[in-house]
């Protein structure tokens, strides 16, 4: 019978892979807590409208990549392709839009997109996500970015990673920029890809994100939003950059970073690296001032980012080491009860401890070496009668008798 395999675009997290994944999550959880972020968890699937409203019907995610299905009650549901829309929905549906704003939220979990699997990109993938919900000030943009930078530093992946930042301006700036883009791309309409011609009618900013090579050549000559900023938008952008400098976050400006949806405004940013090939973005986000309204709530200015755990895991300089256990080894059946007592005493003292389920002294010692044990506690009838244990250092090869009550303290 043929062995079953993981579905294409998914993978198991085992051993070193899981330890890398866990290190990213726990580091992000720890650093974000220092900034005052609280952790939320939302359902893995949502009403499809959460994402069709939040991401827009013309986005590639909605039109090509979402895992949507009809349940037995006829409801259209979607496995979440990203976190932000669901967090904004949670803010509204839990009645949190009028009290204690801003809400600083950390979240992590699996996402689902039907796209071509490639290095660091899967159909089931995982993200860490940070949002400040209900803050209009440029300091919120800078702080959420600084927290991301500190996470990258704590992971040891900041070398070779750079923050690229841009502004999308306010509504007036975007309207002027949109008009300039329509004029420019209309002059090149016949050369644009089919998707970009559709976007020209619906949302010309999306053309700037096109992956089509011909489109990209045309985009290279397109107007930049910096030439269309209002004074207020320019001041907001200057304040974000000043705060980033004060926080010690290095950055460079990239006028081609955009977000195509109408409710995005002001700051857009990406942390990019040259260590992952063509897919070089490891963390990306920006300010969005209308998404909570799309979920049925009041106007709630917000800013945030998401980062792919798989990509960050690949950048870790080395995998975290698995904890090395202590092997508890009874010699003879009569010693097993005392061995079990010792096993639990070690665990209660915070020591990783294991016992082989069967085998003589030789086989149990062989297993201790296979699992990388750092020490062995050997218990025979004579040792137990004397209230002692043989404590063997498996690295140094030394062995000594130690009172049973002192063993957990010696190994903790």
Automatic annotation (TrEMBL):
Residues 1-330 form the Aminoacyl-transfer RNA synthetases class-II family profile domain. Transmembrane segments: none annotated. Belongs to the class-II aminoacyl-tRNA synthetase family. GO terms for molecular function: ATP binding; histidine-tRNA ligase activity. CDD domains: HisRS-like_core, HisRS_anticodon. Keywords: Aminoacyl-tRNA synthetase, ATP-binding, Cytoplasm, Ligase, Nucleotide-binding, Protein biosynthesis. It is found in: Cytoplasm. SUPFAM superfamilies: Class II aaRS ABD-related, Class II aaRS and biotin synthetases. It comes from Neoroseomonas soli. GO terms for cellular component: cytoplasm. The keyword Ligase applies. It comes from the Bacteria. One of its GO terms (biological process) is histidyl-tRNA aminoacylation. It holds the Pfam family tRNA-synt_His. Homodimer. Its EC number is 6.1.1.21. It catalyses: tRNA(His) + L-histidine + ATP = L-histidyl-tRNA(His) + AMP + diphosphate + H(+). PROSITE patterns: AA_TRNA_LIGASE_II. This is Histidine--tRNA ligase. L-histidine binds at residues 82-84, 113, 127, 131, 259, 263-264.
């Amino acid at each position: 019978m043929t062995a079953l395999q993981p579905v294409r675009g998914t993978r198991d997290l085992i051993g070193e892979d899981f330890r890398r994944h866990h290190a990213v999550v726990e580091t992000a959880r720890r650093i974000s807590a220092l900034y005052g972020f609280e952790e939320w968890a939302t359902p893995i699937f949502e009403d499809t409208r959460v994402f069709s409203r939040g991401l827009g019907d013309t986005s590639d995610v909605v039109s090509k990549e979402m895992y949507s299905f009809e349940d037995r009650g006829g409801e259209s549901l979607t496995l979440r392709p990203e976190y932000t829309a669901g967090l904004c929905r949670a803010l509204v549906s839990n009645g949190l839009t009028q009290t204690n704003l801003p809400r600083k939220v950390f979240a992590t979990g699996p996402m689902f997109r039907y796209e071509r699997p490639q290095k660091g990109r899967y159909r089931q993938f995982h993200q860490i996500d940070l949002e400040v919900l209900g803050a209009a000030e440029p300091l919120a943009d800078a702080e959420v970015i600084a927290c991301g930078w500190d996470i990258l530093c704590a992971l040891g992946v900041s070398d070779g990673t750079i923050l690229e930042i841009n502004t999308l301006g306010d509504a007036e700036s975007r309207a002027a920029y949109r008009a300039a883009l329509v004029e420019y791309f209309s002059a090149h309409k016949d050369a644009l890809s089919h998707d970009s011609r559709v976007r020209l009618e619906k949302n010309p900013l999306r053309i700037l994100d096109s992956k089509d090579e011909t489109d990209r050549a045309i985009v290279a000559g397109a107007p930049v939003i910096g030439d269309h900023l209002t004074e207020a938008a320019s001041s907001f952008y200057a304040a974000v950059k000043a705060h980033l400098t004060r926080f010690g976050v290095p950055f460079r400006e990239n006028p081609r970073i955009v977000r195509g949806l109408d409710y995005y405004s002001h700051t857009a940013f990406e942390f990019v690296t040259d260590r992952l090939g063509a897919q070089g973005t490891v963390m990306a986000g920006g300010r969005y001032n209308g998404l909570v309204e799309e979920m049925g709530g009041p106007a709630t200015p917000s800013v945030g980012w998401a980062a792919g755990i798989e990509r960050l895991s690949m950048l870790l300089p080395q995998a975290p080491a698995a904890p090395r256990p202590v092997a508890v080894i009874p010699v003879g059946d009569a010693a097993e009860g005392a061995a079990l007592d010792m096993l639990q005493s070690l665990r209660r003292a915070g020591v990783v401890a294991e016992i082989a389920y069967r085998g003589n002294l030789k086989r149990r010692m062989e297993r201790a070496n296979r699992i990388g044990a750092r020490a062995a506690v050997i218990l025979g009838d004579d040792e137990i009668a004397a209230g002692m244990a043989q404590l063997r250092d498996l690295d140094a090869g030394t062995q000594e008798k130690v009172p049973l009550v002192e063993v957990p303290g010696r190994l903790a």
